[in-house]
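Researcher: Structure prediction, please.
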Amino acid sequence: MAESFSAALKNELGYRTVFSTRKKARQAIAEYIEVLSRTQAPWLHGSLGNVPPVEFEQTHYAALNPEPQPT
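Model: Predicted structure follows.
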């Protein structure tokens, strides 16, 4: 997943922009990540079963700590 994100970052930001300083590059990357984390469309990844990461994590932890069923 990290490689996929890195490729997307390079394609959408890195190859299209020339930064005058490293500080400006870091700031642009931070803004890019923040915008992506706030978008409505969830990121789906094949290794997660094509579900949003938050949903995958919730399902994972629910499976680790199942609630007791009423008898």
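Model: Residues 13 and 32 are 8 Å apart (CA to CA).
Researcher: Thanks, that helps.
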